[in-house]
Amino acid sequence: MTRAISLHDVSKAYTRGARVVDRLSLDITPGEFLVLLGPSGCGKSTVLRMIAGLEEIDEGELLLDGEYANDLPPSGRDMAMVFQNFALYPNMTSRANIGFPLRIEAPGTDPGPRVDATARMLGIEDLLDRLPAQLSGGERQRVAMGRAIARHPSAFLMDEPLSNLDAKLRTHLRAEISQLTRELGVTTVYVTHDQSEAMSLGDRVAVLRGGVLQQVDSPRVVYALPSNVFVAAFIGTPRINLLRGLVRAPLDGAMTISLGKQFLRLPEPLSLDHQLLRVQQGREVIVGLRSEAVRIAKHSAARPGEVPITGLVEHVEFQGHEILVHFNTGSSPAVVTELEASRPRPGRPARRRRREGSVIGRLRERSAAGRAGPVVALDHPADARPGLATAEPRLPGDLIVRTTPDLALRHGMQVPLLVDLAHLFVFDQHGDRICPHPARLPDLEE
């Protein structure tokens, strides 16, 4: 039996005034594999522990199969948790570790058949008589997973179970976890800070920052339509290119987005997305281009929807099946100062992410103090306008382009580039996505 899990405006604070989870609402359907993704300290493990009953909920409510469960003890929730540090009893064999919760739940019953069945499922039959000290990291994690699976719980809660393993073993166990949970059909909530795990495992991905839910959707949608610049920059390898831009929309000329020494000319007639950018006339924006949105080609080879720019090769990363080329285009990178931080620094203006719903509800939420801080906070050098910054990028150049390894590129080459405007992201100064436009425009009569 699997179950539905619902969190309604759940909050948690460990010290006065500091919420690690802030009014989180999330519905997990029976049998779903949901991944909680975010940087360290964003509150994802706290959410998992509140679902398990290991942390008290300060505000809001937890529903299990539609029934109020805030006060239900962990033993009454019928959930199994897999921890990051394996949490095996060192004086027990693998067989005893897997069978221990079964002996607690049903004293006097022989757990042997279920232990053996679980071991066959995980391929660890030959490890059952070994102590944890005699096992490798991957073998210990399989035993820890076996202890959870043998109980036949209604939900699996996994708290970064693969983070202590090497990269090759992580990839292998990731595939095993995906196959096991699909075969068992049990609701699974999986916590990780690794976006590769999140994208490959989850039916849906919930991105957290500072205890506030930024976006929840399928991996494909989160990647293709990030709700704000934080989600866009956190999802994807290599990280999305973020550049400072200035919208110019003269009444008697073509609409462009200036990128410092170059500009993107928007083709006419303007698409709906680009028409909506007119309201940003004269304003600085954040332009997002993923590495696959730009290709190396002569300007004469431009396809419909592609616009030309040029770039100076600064660095070439050979990846085997591809190369990542770092270009200097004369643009100014937009630096998300706290992308990896769980909390904004003191003194930043507070602002919450807009949520779907009525216009009045969104206005109320915008007026409230957002404890996670602004979605994007950019440096304010003395010679720049407030809100956007010119800062030294961490990597050479300002634009990373993914291409095939057969191209012979060297440092200092001037290369023609084509930007596919179908994959252009534009964010406002607060970091909210304004292009592509939302799937549904707000109705002012709601």
Features:
446 residues, alpha+beta, Rossmann fold, 2 domains, six-stranded mixed beta sheet, six-stranded antiparallel beta sheet
Report on this model:
The protein has ten helices and 21 strands. The chain is an alpha+beta fold. It has two domains: 220 residues, P-loop containing nucleotide triphosphate hydrolases (Rossmann fold); 197 residues, no CATH class. The strands form four sheets. It has a six-stranded mixed sheet with strand order 6-7-8-3-9-10, sandwiched between helices. A six-stranded antiparallel sheet has the order 13-12-11-14-20-21. It has a five-stranded antiparallel sheet with strand order 15-19-16-17-18, with no helix packed on it. Helix 2 runs parallel beside helix 4 and helix 3 crosses helix 4. The radius of gyration is 25 Å and the shape is elongated. The two termini are 40 Å apart. The relative contact order is 0.13.
